[in-house]
Amino acid sequence: MNEEKLSRREISIKEKLFDITKVHHDRFLEENKISESVFNDPLQLKMWHHKFDLHSVPPIDPAPIRPQPVKTASFHRSESVKDFIDRTKLDTKVIDKRAQSPVADDSSLAKMSSKTGLSIETLRLIK
Fold first, then answer.
1. Under a CB-based contact definition with an 8 Å cutoff, are residues 118 and 84 in contact?
2. How many domains does the chain have?
3. Which domain holds residue 29?
4. Which of 39, 78, 98, 101 is most deeply packed, by most CB within 10 A?
């Protein structure tokens, strides 16, 4: 979600909260027989009636969150080393031979690592 969309959502939520509070404020003014002409628009005045307790506004019931649709195309299964080798068509005989040798030459593994993008430790584990 980009910054602009988040900003619009924040403004929308604040406006909705203000509207809910304004309903309770209007009810307070009506119950106490206070002239609404002075406090008709608290946003314009930048104040509520001094006797109106903002904490008297009841909590808002949370709405259920809609589940996000699952995008199967965006999920990528982790590729195994075997899948990587099959996909890149590497010479597995060379990898197998060097990986199975008890002490593989680090310089040859380093060369193979730079060609394949696999770590030396991974190349040692491939069988």
1. yes
2. 2
3. 3-59
4. 39
